[in-house]
Amino acid sequence: MKRIIFAVVSVMAIQGAFSQRADTLSLEACFRIAGERSPLNRQKNLSAEAWANKNKNLTSNWYPSLGFNAQVMYYSETVHFSDLVGNLPASVEPLPLDQYKIWADINQQLYDGGAVKARKAIEKASYEADLQQVEADILVLKQQVNQTYFSLLAVKVNTSVLQVSFEELQEKKKVVRAGVDNGLVLSENMMALEAEELRLQQKLLELKLNQDQLLKVLSILMDSTLPGNLIIHEPAEPRVVDENITRPEYVLLDWQKEQLQASQKLVSSTDLPKFFAFSQVAYGRPGYNFLSREFHPYYSVGMGMKWNFMNYGDNRRQKKILDIQKDIVDIKRETFDDQLSIQLQTEKTNQEKYDELMNQDEASERDRTSDPLITNQLT
Questions:
Q1: Angle of helix 115-181 relative to helix 27-37, nearest 10 degrees?
Q2: 3-class SS at 223?
Q3: pLDDT digits (tens, 9 = 90+) for 176-185
Q4: Residue 285 in 3-state DSSP?
Q5: How confident is the model over 43-78, as pLDDT tens digits?
Q6: Domain boundary assignment for the chain
Q7: Is this prediction's pTM over 0.70?
Q8: Yes or no: is domain 6-38+112-272+307-378 CATH 3.90.1150.10?
Q9: Contacts of 323 (CB under 8 A, 6+ apart)
Protein backbone atom coordinates (compact mmCIF):
# COMPACT_ATOMS: atom_id res chain seq x y z
CA MET A 1 0.00 0.00 0.00
CA LYS A 2 1.24 3.45 -0.80
CA ARG A 3 2.34 5.37 2.27
CA ILE A 4 0.09 8.14 3.56
CA ILE A 5 1.29 11.71 4.03
CA PHE A 6 -1.90 13.75 4.16
CA ALA A 7 -4.84 13.82 6.62
CA VAL A 8 -7.74 16.27 6.62
CA VAL A 9 -8.56 17.95 9.94
CA SER A 10 -10.56 20.95 11.12
CA VAL A 11 -8.88 24.35 10.88
CA MET A 12 -10.30 25.40 14.22
CA ALA A 13 -8.73 22.41 15.96
CA ILE A 14 -5.25 23.11 14.59
CA GLN A 15 -5.69 26.89 15.18
CA GLY A 16 -4.03 27.97 12.01
CA ALA A 17 -0.74 26.22 12.77
CA PHE A 18 -0.33 24.67 9.34
CA SER A 19 0.80 26.19 6.08
CA GLN A 20 -1.23 23.84 3.86
CA ARG A 21 -4.94 24.13 3.16
CA ALA A 22 -6.97 24.99 6.23
CA ASP A 23 -8.50 21.50 6.43
CA THR A 24 -5.37 19.51 5.56
CA LEU A 25 -2.57 18.18 7.76
CA SER A 26 0.45 16.43 6.25
CA LEU A 27 2.68 13.88 7.91
CA GLU A 28 5.56 16.36 7.62
CA ALA A 29 3.43 18.90 9.50
CA CYS A 30 2.82 16.29 12.20
CA PHE A 31 6.58 15.84 12.52
CA ARG A 32 7.19 19.59 12.64
CA ILE A 33 4.49 20.35 15.20
CA ALA A 34 5.47 17.42 17.43
CA GLY A 35 9.10 18.55 17.33
CA GLU A 36 8.35 22.23 17.96
CA ARG A 37 5.94 21.62 20.83
CA SER A 38 7.96 18.91 22.51
CA PRO A 39 9.37 19.71 25.98
CA LEU A 40 12.68 18.44 24.62
CA ASN A 41 13.21 21.84 22.98
CA ARG A 42 13.27 23.47 26.40
CA GLN A 43 15.93 20.95 27.39
CA LYS A 44 18.07 22.09 24.44
CA ASN A 45 17.79 25.73 25.58
CA LEU A 46 18.67 24.83 29.16
CA SER A 47 21.69 22.79 28.00
CA ALA A 48 22.93 25.73 25.93
CA GLU A 49 22.56 28.09 28.89
CA ALA A 50 24.38 25.69 31.23
CA TRP A 51 27.24 25.21 28.76
CA ALA A 52 27.66 28.99 28.30
CA ASN A 53 27.98 29.48 32.05
CA LYS A 54 30.43 26.58 32.41
CA ASN A 55 32.55 28.04 29.61
CA LYS A 56 32.63 31.43 31.33
CA ASN A 57 33.63 29.81 34.61
CA LEU A 58 36.54 28.02 32.93
CA THR A 59 37.65 31.21 31.18
CA SER A 60 37.71 33.00 34.53
CA ASN A 61 40.55 30.69 35.60
CA TRP A 62 42.85 32.90 33.52
CA TYR A 63 41.73 36.04 35.34
CA PRO A 64 43.86 37.21 38.28
CA SER A 65 42.54 36.17 41.67
CA LEU A 66 42.24 38.85 44.35
CA GLY A 67 41.74 38.32 48.09
CA PHE A 68 41.60 40.77 51.00
CA ASN A 69 42.84 39.97 54.49
CA ALA A 70 43.25 41.74 57.83
CA GLN A 71 45.22 40.76 60.90
CA VAL A 72 45.84 42.15 64.37
CA MET A 73 48.36 40.42 66.66
CA TYR A 74 49.68 40.97 70.18
CA TYR A 75 52.92 39.33 71.44
CA SER A 76 53.86 38.71 75.06
CA GLU A 77 57.41 39.70 74.27
CA THR A 78 59.41 41.24 71.49
CA VAL A 79 62.96 41.97 70.47
CA HIS A 80 65.02 44.10 72.93
CA PHE A 81 68.15 45.79 71.66
CA SER A 82 69.65 46.59 75.11
CA ASP A 83 71.68 43.39 75.01
CA LEU A 84 73.13 44.39 71.70
CA VAL A 85 73.89 47.98 72.69
CA GLY A 86 75.54 47.00 75.96
CA ASN A 87 77.32 49.93 77.65
CA LEU A 88 77.25 52.15 74.58
CA PRO A 89 75.85 55.63 75.20
CA ALA A 90 72.79 54.90 73.06
CA SER A 91 69.38 53.46 73.58
CA VAL A 92 67.06 51.71 71.19
CA GLU A 93 63.40 51.37 71.98
CA PRO A 94 62.05 47.81 71.89
CA LEU A 95 59.67 46.81 69.11
CA PRO A 96 55.98 47.19 69.89
CA LEU A 97 54.12 44.19 71.17
CA ASP A 98 51.13 44.80 68.86
CA GLN A 99 51.20 44.41 65.09
CA TYR A 100 48.61 45.40 62.44
CA LYS A 101 48.30 44.35 58.83
CA ILE A 102 45.78 44.78 56.03
CA TRP A 103 46.79 43.23 52.73
CA ALA A 104 45.62 41.98 49.35
CA ASP A 105 46.90 38.81 47.67
CA ILE A 106 46.97 38.86 43.85
CA ASN A 107 47.70 35.70 41.88
CA GLN A 108 47.87 35.22 38.12
CA GLN A 109 48.09 31.87 36.39
CA LEU A 110 50.69 31.87 33.62
CA TYR A 111 50.72 28.27 32.39
CA ASP A 112 48.49 25.39 33.47
CA GLY A 113 49.70 22.64 31.14
CA GLY A 114 46.56 22.93 28.98
CA ALA A 115 44.14 22.01 31.78
CA VAL A 116 41.62 24.81 31.12
CA LYS A 117 41.65 24.13 27.38
CA ALA A 118 41.05 20.44 28.01
CA ARG A 119 38.19 21.17 30.43
CA LYS A 120 36.59 23.47 27.85
CA ALA A 121 36.85 20.71 25.26
CA ILE A 122 35.21 18.27 27.69
CA GLU A 123 32.33 20.65 28.40
CA LYS A 124 31.91 21.40 24.69
CA ALA A 125 31.76 17.70 23.84
CA SER A 126 29.35 17.08 26.71
CA TYR A 127 27.08 19.88 25.51
CA GLU A 128 27.09 18.64 21.92
CA ALA A 129 26.41 15.10 23.13
CA ASP A 130 23.43 16.38 25.11
CA LEU A 131 22.08 18.13 22.01
CA GLN A 132 22.41 14.97 19.93
CA GLN A 133 20.71 12.96 22.66
CA VAL A 134 17.80 15.39 22.49
CA GLU A 135 17.76 15.05 18.69
CA ALA A 136 17.69 11.27 19.08
CA ASP A 137 14.79 11.57 21.51
CA ILE A 138 12.96 13.85 19.06
CA LEU A 139 13.56 11.27 16.34
CA VAL A 140 11.98 8.62 18.57
CA LEU A 141 9.05 11.00 19.04
CA LYS A 142 8.69 11.37 15.27
CA GLN A 143 8.81 7.60 14.87
CA GLN A 144 5.94 7.34 17.35
CA VAL A 145 4.04 9.95 15.34
CA ASN A 146 4.77 7.99 12.17
CA GLN A 147 3.56 4.70 13.63
CA THR A 148 0.41 6.27 15.04
CA TYR A 149 -0.29 8.07 11.76
CA PHE A 150 -0.09 4.92 9.67
CA SER A 151 -1.99 2.93 12.27
CA LEU A 152 -4.82 5.41 11.71
CA LEU A 153 -4.49 4.75 7.98
CA ALA A 154 -4.74 1.00 8.56
CA VAL A 155 -7.85 1.53 10.68
CA LYS A 156 -9.35 3.66 7.92
CA VAL A 157 -8.68 1.00 5.26
CA ASN A 158 -10.05 -1.80 7.44
CA THR A 159 -13.10 0.27 8.29
CA SER A 160 -13.74 0.98 4.61
CA VAL A 161 -13.49 -2.72 3.70
CA LEU A 162 -15.81 -3.76 6.54
CA GLN A 163 -18.23 -0.98 5.72
CA VAL A 164 -18.47 -2.19 2.12
CA SER A 165 -18.97 -5.75 3.35
CA PHE A 166 -21.64 -4.53 5.77
CA GLU A 167 -23.52 -2.71 3.00
CA GLU A 168 -23.30 -5.75 0.74
CA LEU A 169 -24.63 -7.87 3.58
CA GLN A 170 -27.61 -5.54 3.92
CA GLU A 171 -28.40 -6.02 0.23
CA LYS A 172 -28.08 -9.79 0.58
CA LYS A 173 -30.41 -9.73 3.60
CA LYS A 174 -33.06 -8.02 1.50
CA VAL A 175 -32.82 -10.76 -1.16
CA VAL A 176 -32.79 -13.58 1.40
CA ARG A 177 -35.65 -12.03 3.40
CA ALA A 178 -37.76 -11.89 0.25
CA GLY A 179 -36.89 -15.54 -0.41
CA VAL A 180 -37.84 -16.53 3.14
CA ASP A 181 -41.13 -14.63 2.92
CA ASN A 182 -41.94 -16.42 -0.33
CA GLY A 183 -40.87 -19.80 1.01
CA LEU A 184 -37.99 -20.12 -1.44
CA VAL A 185 -35.15 -19.86 1.10
CA LEU A 186 -34.75 -21.50 4.50
CA SER A 187 -34.91 -19.22 7.56
CA GLU A 188 -31.55 -20.63 8.74
CA ASN A 189 -29.91 -18.67 5.89
CA MET A 190 -31.39 -15.49 7.29
CA MET A 191 -30.10 -16.32 10.77
CA ALA A 192 -26.58 -16.88 9.36
CA LEU A 193 -26.65 -13.46 7.71
CA GLU A 194 -27.82 -11.83 10.96
CA ALA A 195 -24.94 -13.50 12.83
CA GLU A 196 -22.52 -12.21 10.22
CA GLU A 197 -24.07 -8.76 10.55
CA LEU A 198 -23.51 -8.81 14.30
CA ARG A 199 -19.87 -9.83 13.81
CA LEU A 200 -19.28 -6.95 11.37
CA GLN A 201 -20.92 -4.49 13.75
CA GLN A 202 -18.62 -5.62 16.54
CA LYS A 203 -15.59 -5.29 14.27
CA LEU A 204 -16.65 -1.79 13.21
CA LEU A 205 -17.14 -0.77 16.83
CA GLU A 206 -13.71 -2.15 17.73
CA LEU A 207 -12.13 -0.19 14.88
CA LYS A 208 -13.95 2.97 15.99
CA LEU A 209 -12.63 2.63 19.55
CA ASN A 210 -9.13 1.92 18.19
CA GLN A 211 -9.32 5.03 16.02
CA ASP A 212 -10.38 7.18 18.97
CA GLN A 213 -7.45 5.84 21.01
CA LEU A 214 -4.97 6.51 18.19
CA LEU A 215 -6.29 10.05 17.78
CA LYS A 216 -5.75 10.68 21.49
CA VAL A 217 -2.18 9.35 21.24
CA LEU A 218 -1.46 11.53 18.20
CA SER A 219 -2.95 14.55 19.96
CA ILE A 220 -0.61 13.99 22.92
CA LEU A 221 2.43 13.53 20.69
CA MET A 222 1.62 16.72 18.76
CA ASP A 223 0.40 18.63 21.84
CA SER A 224 -2.66 19.53 19.73
CA THR A 225 -6.38 18.82 19.67
CA LEU A 226 -7.40 16.66 16.73
CA PRO A 227 -11.04 16.15 15.69
CA GLY A 228 -12.71 12.76 15.82
CA ASN A 229 -13.74 12.93 12.16
CA LEU A 230 -10.17 12.96 10.90
CA ILE A 231 -9.95 11.97 7.22
CA ILE A 232 -6.70 10.49 5.90
CA HIS A 233 -5.80 10.64 2.22
CA GLU A 234 -3.43 8.33 0.41
CA PRO A 235 -0.41 10.12 -1.13
CA ALA A 236 0.50 9.94 -4.78
CA GLU A 237 3.94 8.46 -4.02
CA PRO A 238 5.04 6.08 -1.27
CA ARG A 239 7.39 7.29 1.41
CA VAL A 240 10.94 6.14 0.67
CA VAL A 241 13.28 5.11 3.47
CA ASP A 242 16.57 7.00 3.10
CA GLU A 243 19.47 4.90 4.37
CA ASN A 244 22.00 7.75 3.94
CA ILE A 245 20.49 10.09 6.54
CA THR A 246 22.96 10.93 9.31
CA ARG A 247 21.35 9.69 12.50
CA PRO A 248 21.82 11.82 15.64
CA GLU A 249 22.88 8.66 17.48
CA TYR A 250 26.05 8.49 15.36
CA VAL A 251 26.87 12.15 16.08
CA LEU A 252 26.19 11.50 19.76
CA LEU A 253 28.71 8.65 19.81
CA ASP A 254 31.27 10.84 18.01
CA TRP A 255 30.95 13.56 20.65
CA GLN A 256 31.18 11.00 23.45
CA LYS A 257 34.47 9.84 21.97
CA GLU A 258 35.62 13.45 21.62
CA GLN A 259 34.82 13.98 25.30
CA LEU A 260 36.97 10.99 26.25
CA GLN A 261 39.86 12.27 24.14
CA ALA A 262 39.64 15.65 25.85
CA SER A 263 39.63 13.88 29.22
CA GLN A 264 42.89 12.17 28.26
CA LYS A 265 44.42 15.58 27.49
CA LEU A 266 43.25 16.81 30.89
CA VAL A 267 44.96 13.87 32.57
CA SER A 268 48.15 14.60 30.62
CA SER A 269 48.07 18.23 31.79
CA THR A 270 48.47 17.11 35.40
CA ASP A 271 51.91 15.73 34.53
CA LEU A 272 53.15 19.18 33.47
CA PRO A 273 54.42 21.93 35.76
CA LYS A 274 52.21 24.94 36.54
CA PHE A 275 53.63 28.48 36.52
CA PHE A 276 52.05 31.46 38.23
CA ALA A 277 52.81 35.00 39.34
CA PHE A 278 51.85 36.45 42.71
CA SER A 279 52.03 39.72 44.61
CA GLN A 280 50.99 41.10 47.97
CA VAL A 281 50.11 44.72 48.74
CA ALA A 282 49.79 45.57 52.42
CA TYR A 283 49.43 48.40 54.92
CA GLY A 284 50.37 48.16 58.61
CA ARG A 285 53.25 47.83 61.01
CA PRO A 286 55.81 46.49 61.01
CA GLY A 287 56.38 45.80 57.37
CA TYR A 288 59.24 43.98 55.83
CA ASN A 289 61.41 46.39 57.78
CA PHE A 290 60.67 44.91 61.17
CA LEU A 291 62.42 47.85 62.88
CA SER A 292 59.85 50.32 61.59
CA ARG A 293 57.31 51.48 64.17
CA GLU A 294 55.17 53.51 61.77
CA PHE A 295 52.14 52.44 59.75
CA HIS A 296 53.12 52.38 56.09
CA PRO A 297 52.34 50.59 52.80
CA TYR A 298 54.59 47.84 51.42
CA TYR A 299 54.40 45.13 48.76
CA SER A 300 56.07 42.10 47.24
CA VAL A 301 55.97 40.39 43.84
CA GLY A 302 57.23 37.04 42.65
CA MET A 303 56.79 33.99 40.45
CA GLY A 304 56.31 30.36 41.38
CA MET A 305 56.03 26.85 40.00
CA LYS A 306 54.17 23.72 41.04
CA TRP A 307 55.00 20.33 39.65
CA ASN A 308 53.52 17.13 41.02
CA PHE A 309 55.53 14.56 39.11
CA MET A 310 55.01 11.66 41.53
CA ASN A 311 51.53 10.27 40.82
CA TYR A 312 52.51 6.59 41.23
CA GLY A 313 51.01 5.57 37.88
CA ASP A 314 47.56 7.08 38.57
CA ASN A 315 47.54 9.07 35.34
CA ARG A 316 48.69 6.11 33.27
CA ARG A 317 45.89 3.97 34.67
CA GLN A 318 43.36 6.75 34.16
CA LYS A 319 44.36 7.02 30.50
CA LYS A 320 43.95 3.26 30.17
CA ILE A 321 40.45 3.54 31.61
CA LEU A 322 39.59 6.23 29.06
CA ASP A 323 40.93 4.03 26.25
CA ILE A 324 38.63 1.24 27.43
CA GLN A 325 35.69 3.65 27.48
CA LYS A 326 36.46 4.67 23.88
CA ASP A 327 36.43 0.98 22.91
CA ILE A 328 33.02 0.69 24.57
CA VAL A 329 31.77 3.61 22.45
CA ASP A 330 32.98 1.77 19.33
CA ILE A 331 31.06 -1.32 20.44
CA LYS A 332 27.95 0.80 20.93
CA ARG A 333 28.34 2.09 17.39
CA GLU A 334 28.57 -1.44 15.99
CA THR A 335 25.52 -2.49 17.99
CA PHE A 336 23.55 0.50 16.74
CA ASP A 337 24.57 -0.33 13.16
CA ASP A 338 22.97 -3.76 13.57
CA GLN A 339 19.84 -2.33 15.18
CA LEU A 340 19.47 0.30 12.48
CA SER A 341 19.88 -2.29 9.73
CA ILE A 342 17.14 -4.38 11.31
CA GLN A 343 14.92 -1.32 11.65
CA LEU A 344 15.42 -0.30 8.01
CA GLN A 345 14.77 -3.83 6.79
CA THR A 346 11.60 -3.99 8.89
CA GLU A 347 10.47 -0.67 7.46
CA LYS A 348 11.02 -1.89 3.92
CA THR A 349 9.18 -5.14 4.64
CA ASN A 350 6.24 -3.26 6.14
CA GLN A 351 6.11 -0.96 3.14
CA GLU A 352 6.01 -3.93 0.78
CA LYS A 353 3.37 -5.59 2.96
CA TYR A 354 1.18 -2.47 2.93
CA ASP A 355 1.53 -2.21 -0.85
CA GLU A 356 0.47 -5.84 -1.28
CA LEU A 357 -2.45 -5.42 1.11
CA MET A 358 -3.66 -2.37 -0.79
CA ASN A 359 -3.46 -4.28 -4.08
CA GLN A 360 -5.42 -7.15 -2.55
CA ASP A 361 -8.04 -4.73 -1.20
CA GLU A 362 -8.44 -3.11 -4.59
CA ALA A 363 -8.73 -6.54 -6.28
CA SER A 364 -11.31 -7.69 -3.73
CA GLU A 365 -13.33 -4.54 -4.26
CA ARG A 366 -13.33 -5.11 -8.04
CA ASP A 367 -14.43 -8.72 -7.53
CA ARG A 368 -17.29 -7.68 -5.26
CA THR A 369 -18.40 -5.05 -7.75
CA SER A 370 -18.44 -7.61 -10.57
CA ASP A 371 -20.38 -10.22 -8.52
CA PRO A 372 -23.46 -11.25 -10.66
CA LEU A 373 -25.68 -11.44 -7.59
CA ILE A 374 -24.78 -7.94 -6.50
CA THR A 375 -25.07 -6.68 -10.05
CA ASN A 376 -28.56 -8.17 -10.44
CA GLN A 377 -29.62 -6.74 -7.09
CA LEU A 378 -28.42 -3.27 -8.02
CA THR A 379 -30.16 -3.43 -11.40
A1: 130
A2: coil
A3: 777 777 777 6
A4: strand
A5: 999 999 999 999 999 999 999 999 999 999 998 888
A6: 6-38+112-272+307-378
A7: yes
A8: no
A9: 264
